[in-house]
Amino acid sequence: MSPPLLRVDRLAKRFGALAVTDDVSFSVDEGRLVALIGPNGAGKTTLIHQLSGALQSDAGRIDFGGVDISALDMPARAALGLARSFQIAAVLPEYSALENVALAVQARSGSSFRFFGRAAREDRLNAPGRAALARVGLLPRAEDPAGELSHGEKRSLEIAMALALRPRLMLLDEPFAGLGSEETRAGIDLLRALKSECAMLLVEHDVDAVFALADEIGVMVDGRLIAWGSPNAIRADAGVRLAYLGDEALS
Questions:
Q1: DSSP three-state, residue 37
Q2: Contact status, residue 22 vs residue 225, Cβ threshold 8 Å
Q3: Are residue 175 and residue 74 in the same domain, yes or no?
Q4: How far is CA 48 from CA 25, 42, 157, 165, 172, in A?
């Protein structure tokens, strides 16, 4: 049996007396989509920050692809194939969709961001940038300023930017936040199609989307994982019903 792609062992982060993540352990296998759910303030986004390298942990260990990445910064983790999207779309509104992705391609190559050089004018960045946009259905908007895209299109653009890093694992922080029902359905279809290309760790409040996509689900409450298992196991877990989901959400 192959070792997991991501192994998290007893991860913890404190802010003063507050334990935001507390003794968190889990793993993600290649080709799997794992979701983390829980109430606001459960520590999910902090955990994503810890995994991406945006925030250093106070305790615990993170292994990715068999490498201890606990002390690595965000660019070093991205270079190993760990990419993330943000809770709030992090795109450059004055740059075109293609230029946004081309800058991600440029970052993957180890080059510095050359904002005055318009990265997407370089052929070596254009082709993979257009391929990533096509993958998320945004190729027709390639030349449009990112600021003119709809909210859902911006979320898709952010996923294209993550794909441009050629990730082995994508960390997705609430990709359906603020989307309408049609955009959410399109987002679910997109992530389902991408599951064959890389593993994903999804933080999301849309329970219907989570249960439509996830192979495994972890439930966080007050910084701790209180349950982990298949969607059916989580649906049937009385403790999860009591702490977070409720009977109505699981009907």
A1: strand
A2: no
A3: yes
A4: 13, 12, 20, 17, 8
Q: At what angle do helices 181-194 and 151-163 cross, to 10 degrees?
A: 10
User: 135 lies in which domain range?
Assistant: 92-148
Q: Does 154 fall in a domain?
A: no
State mean pLDDT over 102-106.
82
- Report residue 51's pLDDT band, with 50, 70 and 90 as the boundaries: very high
Whether the per-residue pLDDT at 171 is higher than 50: the answer is yes
Q: In this structure, are 96 and 77 located in the same domain?
A: no
86, pLDDT greater than 70: no
Tokens of 75: 């660019």
Both tokens of 96, joined, read 């075109």
Rounded CA separation 74/157 (Å): 20
- pTM value is 0.86
Domain-located, residue 191? yes
Element (H, E) at 27: strand 18-28
Does residue 163 lie within any of the structural domains?
no
Give me the number of domains the chain comprises.
2
The tokens for 229 are: 């298992």
In this predicted structure, what is the pLDDT of residue 60? 97
Tokens 């606990």 map to which residue? 70
Name 80's Cβ contacts closer than 8 Å, sequence gap at least 6.
64, 65, 67, 69, 72, 168
Is 59 a member of any domain? yes
At residue 118, the pLDDT reads 54
Beta bridge partners of 29: none
Q: What is the pLDDT of residue 241?
A: 81
Looking at the structure, do residues 60 and 108 belong to the same domain, yes or no? Answer: no
Q: Which of 19, 32, 10, 7 is nearest to 230 (CA)?
A: 32
